[in-house]
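--- STAGE predict ---
source: upstream dedup step, 1 unique chain passed
mode: sequence only
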Amino acid sequence: MTIAVDFDGTIVHHRYPAIGKPIPFALETLKQLSEDGHGIILWTVREGKLLEDAVEYCRQNGLEFYAVNSNYPEEALVAKTAPRKITADLFIDDRNLGGIPDWGIIYRMVHD
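--- STAGE serialize ---
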């Protein structure tokens, strides 16, 4: 599956524009889902340096994304004019109806 995941409030606690503390098991679960063969897309409102910081934070913690704010790595978006509509099988975001479940529950939902 292609899985789009938000950053603030989903991978780390909300402290935007700073990077908050990691949400327990978020990075580990996303790394495992990637190892299971799923394509993980970082889907966030962050842009520019703030986006670079988030990507680097994840990279330093062992999580590499298939794509960032795009459907595939080579997709060229024209800033300010291109919509960031991502095509994914699943979206993981703290703003879901009912909030975000525990990362163990998320993994079981995807894996099973």
